[in-house]
Structure formats: structure tokens, C-alpha cells
Amino acid sequence: MGSTNMDVERTLLKVAVSIIALFAIFQGTQGLKDYSLQRSAEIADKAKLANDDIKNKESDQK
Fold it and tell me: How far apart are CA 29 and CA 38, in angstroms?
């Protein structure tokens, strides 16, 4: 009887650890997603500014 309780406790512990690990992975991927979206916006802004500078220089030369 005692080993059955131990098996149940061990199984519950494994389930809890698995859930915590999945949550940590999920949180990490959300953080990476937010970071990549922010970086994409920054890079797009820089590219737009550089493109605008090129257009301005070309129009000044005409």
C-alpha cells in the first residue's frame, strides 16, 4: 500500500515539474517574440530613415 502512495506522489511531482517547464518555455518564447518584434520595428525605422536620406540627396543633386 505504501508503494502505491509513493508512486502517486512521484507521478504528481513529475506532472508538476513538466507543467512548470512548459510554462517557462512558453514565457521564454513570448519574450523572444516581443524582442524580435521590437527589433524589427527599430530596423524598419532605420531603413526608412536611410532611404529618405538617399532620396533627399538625389533630389538635391537634380
Answer: 14
Q: How far apart are CA 29 and CA 22, in angstroms?
A: 11
Scanning the structure block, which residue is given the C-alpha cell 513529475? 14
> What is the rounded CA–CA span in Å between residue 5 and residue 29?
36
In whole angstroms, what is the distance from residue 27 CA to residue 29 CA?
6
Q: Whose grid coordinates read 506532472?
A: 15
User: Given this model, what pLDDT does residue 52 score?
Assistant: 84
Instruction: Reduce the DSSP state of residue 44 to 3 states and report it.
Output: helix
Quick one: pLDDT at residue 51? 85
